[in-house]
Design brief:
Elements lengths: L6 H7 L4 E7 L5 E6 L5 E6 L8 E6 L18 H17 L6 H19 L6 H13 L3 H16 L3 H4 L8 H13 L3 H19 L41 H11 L4 H11 L5 H4 L11 E6 L8 E6 L2 H10 L17 H12 L9 H13 L4 H7 L7 H5 L6 H16 L4
Antiparallel strand pairs: 1-2, 2-3, 3-4, 5-6
This protein binds a DNA duplex (20 and 20 nucleotides) through strand 1, strand 2, helix 5, helix 8 and helix 11.
Length: 427
DNA sequence: GGATGTACGCGCTTTTGCGC
DNA sequence: GCGCAAAAGCGCGTACATCC
């Protein structure tokens, strides 16, 4: 696809979750691009091996990378750098064709990892130590997630199966993991079992990768993990999981606005939450005074696998500013009822339930966020602006590189239009 | 035989409900 | 107002079908 069409034009036309061939790679395979459901743009090298055509990820596209750069920037690849990476992969594939191609190259790399791990194998490093080390790494991104993961292990493994928790990590068998999971499963805690399995798998995966991934802490090496005992355990599926598509309809949103329009700190929080575009509660409650500016505020989003933390710039329309002033306190956190600590999302939910009650059937605060999306859509706000406002495409290239003030005016107008709709009588 | 397009399940993180 | 358990949201890899 070496045409006159620029890569930015290609990206603009690319459908989410679809692969698009960019160009052929000599001697084998193709360089392809994929946009995720939320707008991330990722390079892959794809090749047919036997009856399969796996796509091997190269890395994110970095629109700000110099076009002629041959190696990736910290933020990703230029087209040229991605092409060179794909060519390198293709050459390895070609060299190993008689042995099975690139799949074999990867397998050999894993064997080398295992051999190295064996050399470093050390006694005394238990499953619990490994797990907690992993949890500590989670804590650097999100304390809440780390706390929950820690409690999960303490309650379901350390307390119930202490002998398994104390087993040397690289000697833990799949059967031992299954024993733990079965115990939780039999108590009908399906999601708990599923989550524990996920964390155990992730802890082992991180330790196993310690030698080849610079982002993995040095301490993981001493566990000498050469295989993941969780990998060959069949999937633990939750029962009766559904998808919440129960967004508040525009008329409900108007009703909601009427309900929360009365004075008071609790309603002020709900007004602020709504007029900021229905931001995620977990992020909104962590708002710090240093991130509150004259006409906008900044929230920080750590959602996603990349481990990065991203700013979400939200314009403050006058009504939102007024709501903020009603409950803003001094200190580190702008929204707090316990000195020195951010407001709990749990508390906020309680407020919302108490205030709204039965005035809106089956009301939950979560429905406000999706209700904002629905309302903005009705108000002709395009999806790109909606996504930026609610940080739905955080990992997309546009989101990573856009200037703090990009879309500010569009987002402000969207919020003002929404406010105008809310305060207008439907009759 | 190899390239391309699409759907879907799993892993991880965030949000919400319940009970204290 | 908080801790815990469960549900929901989202990125990613891969199976599968079809095309060249």
């Amino acid at each position: 696809m070496k045409t006159n069409v620029s890569i930015s034009e290609v990206i603009a036309k690319l459908q989410p979750r679809k692969f698009l061939k960019l160009e052929s790679i000599a001697p084998y395979g193709t360089l392809v691009l994929r946009k995720t459901g939320k707008g991330s743009v990722v390079f892959y090298w794809r090749v047919t091996i036997g009856s399969k055509s796996p796509a091997y990820q190269i890395g994110l596209y970095d629109s700000s990378a110099p076009p002629l750069s041959k190696s990736p920037t910290p933020n990703g690849y230029s087209l040229r750098a991605a092409r060179m990476a794909a060519e390198s992969m293709a050459e390895k594939h070609y060299a190993a064709l008689s042995d099975g191609g690139y799949e074999t190259v990867i397998a050999q790399q894993q064997l080398q990892e295992q051999a190295l791990a064996k050399e470093n194998a050390a006694a005394g490093h238990s499953l619990e130590k490994l797990y907690m080390l992993y949890v500590d790494s989670l804590a650097t991104r999100n304390h809440e997630t780390a706390k929950q993961a820690r409690n999960l292990f303490a309650k379901n493994v350390a307390a119930v199966f202490p002998e398994i928790a104390n087993t040397q990590a690289n000697r833990v068998s799949s059967e031992q993991v299954v024993t733990v999971l079965r115990d939780i499963w039999s108590a009908e805690k399906y999601n708990t079992a599923r989550k524990l399995k996920a964390y155990l798998h992730a802890a082992y995966a991180m330790a196993k990768n310690a030698d080849h991934n610079p982002t993995v802490a040095e301490e993981f090496k001493v566990f000498a993990i050469k295989q993941n005992p969780v990998s060959d355990i069949e999937g633990v599926k939750p029962k009766d999981t559904g998808v919440d598509k129960n967004a508040l309809l525009p008329d409900d949103m108007r009703k909601y606005w009427q309900v929360i329009s009365k004075a008071g700190a609790q309603t002020a929080f709900l007004r602020l939450h709504l007029l900021l575009g229905g931001q995620r509660l977990e992020q909104l409650v962590r708002l710090k005074n240093c991130d509150v500016h004259e006409d906008m505020l900044v929230l920080w989003d750590s959602k996603g696998r990349t481990g990065s933390v991203r700013p979400i710039v939200v314009p403050l329309i006058p009504a939102a500013l007024a709501a903020l002033k009603e409950l803003q306190v001094q200190g580190e956190y702008a929204l707090s009822v316990t000195p020195g600590r951010p407001l709990s999302t749990r508390t906020v939910n309680t407020w919302a339930q108490n205030i709204v009650g039965e005035q809106i059937p089956a009301f939950t605060l979560k429905r406000v966020r999706s209700g904002v999306t629905t309302l903005l859509s009705k108000l002709q706000v395009n999806a790109e602006i909606r996504n930026h406002l609610q940080s739905h495409n955080l990992h997309g290239v546009e989101a990573r590189h856009y200037n703090m003030y990009d879309f500010a005016e569009e987002k402000r107008k969207a919020l003002e239009d929404m406010y105008a709709f809310l305060v207008t009588s439907s009759k």
